Amino acid sequence: MQTYEFTSPMTLDNVKKLLSGSTKSIRPLAGGTDLIDQLRVDRRTADIVMDIKNINELNQLDYTNGTLNLGAAVSCTTVRKFQPIIDNYPALAESAGLVGSVQIQNRASIGGNVCNAAPSADTIPSLLIYSAIGVVIGPDGERKIPLENFFTGPSSTVLNPNEILVSIIIPPPPENSTSHYLRFIPREEMDIAVAGVGTMIAIDPATRQCVQARIALSAVSAIPKRATEAESILEGNVINEDLITEAGAKASIECTPIDDIRGTIEYRKELVKVLTRRTIRKCIEILN
Amino acid sequence: MKRIPVSLNINGRDYDVFVWPWQSLLNAIRDEVNLTGCKEGCGNGNCGSCTILVNGYTIDSCLMLAVEGIGKQITTIEGMANGTDLHPLQKSFIKYAALQCGICTPGFLMSAKHLLDGNPKPTEHEIRAGIAGNLCRCTGYDKIVRAIQAVANGEQFD
């Protein structure tokens, strides 16, 4: 059980001051659905918990010029109901609707899901398939980090202790593209993914060839990451059932799951095979 | 470290209490405000027995700090009835015997209210998904689902 101080800055400038002036460990609090419990059971530590939900930049949500700016504290509920996300990044809306329960989605943020960096985080594959970029600030200013390079291991990221994620930039989706996220859990709701697959497919409407494929996996390696070899099986080709089977098999080889309480290595690899196939098929079905 | 003075607006009334920075909103509502309708089950966001409404959205109050509650409109089970006139969901839970031990009931009622406020005519699947964050170890869920469905169907309970 941790005891800590609490602060609730109203501006990004105040955040910077707090982060640069303090020798104490400061943890940002967005929805708190991971952090508050982790502090209670000593899985993370903090001298100061800094509520970042009152800062404008952390609450931004706009889709202008085809680019999505998603503040790090925006809730899963807001994301899954935001029409431009449903229309342009469907896997992100789907995965936001799979995080925990309604109560959790009402509080939990996508930025928190990213910074908590669970290998099984449902929203991360949906960000990786769209080449999302994290905007981070610290005492030295701002830096932009592609989320593909953001994770360093279970529950750990490239963020320095005095840096926070401000927002996530998601570039425009490719023309004629769609996406789908599927995860497997043993029950219908409220569980942590045994395996999850997010897939984005873009096709050339004239030739029906796949122009770009992105497949990202969760819960089957130490960090969420793309299955690039499976992607390259699809790119440049007209996707048919044989290629879908081949891509599923390749993704299954590429992933490196562990045995744990939720599933064995063998089972998870089989799930990746099946979920990859299903997500590709769903994308093709939508694009047709 | 010192306790922090906070003003919590609960069921339309302001309560001025002192809380620790790390104290959960659930704990503050129960032990400082003395409204004991919301219950602690798991204490980590799985069971939903501490579900309350904050600005109209259900949240697990064990996973929210009391200091975050400043300036928010908080509704607990005590604020659901209109005086002595129970909310239709409360009447329906009684009629359909949608409870046994009762620990989970305040949370279920909050989730059911939130569901019907946003979706007055949910399908059975939508009801089940809407209450997936609430666990009941006594009744199973059929009676709870039926009780919610009855309210959605406009059944009168008087």
Query: What's the gyration radius of chain A in Å?
Result: 19 Å
Largest interface: A-B, 28 and 31 residues
Strands of the widest sheet of chain A, in order across it, are: 4-5-10-6-7
Overall 3D form of chain B? globular
CATH superfamily of the largest domain in chain B: Beta-grasp domain
Strands of the widest sheet of chain B, in order across it, are: 2-1-5-3-4
| C-alpha termini separation of chain A | 54 Å
Mean pLDDT across the residues of chain A is: 96
Number of domains of chain B: 2
| Structural class by SSE content of chain B | alpha+beta
What's the topology here?
The complex is a heterodimer of chains A (288) and B (158).
Chain A: E1 5-7, H1 12-21, E2 26-29, H2 35-40, E3 48-51, E4 61-64, E5 67-71, H3 76-81, H4 83-88, H5 90-96, H6 102-107, H7 110-116, H8 123-128, E6 133-138, E7 141-146, E8 151-153, E9 156-157, E10 164-170, E11 177-184, E12 195-203, E13 210-218, E14 225-226, H9 228-234, H10 241-254, H11 265-287
Parallel strand pairs in A: 1-3, 2-3
Antiparallel strand pairs in A: 4-5, 5-10, 6-7, 6-10, 8-9, 11-12, 12-13, 13-14
Helix pairs in contact in A: 9-10, 10-11
Chain B: E1 4-10, E2 13-19, H1 25-32, E3 51-54, E4 57-60, E5 73-75, H2 88-95, H3 105-118, H4 124-130, H5 142-152
Helix pairs in contact in B: 2-5
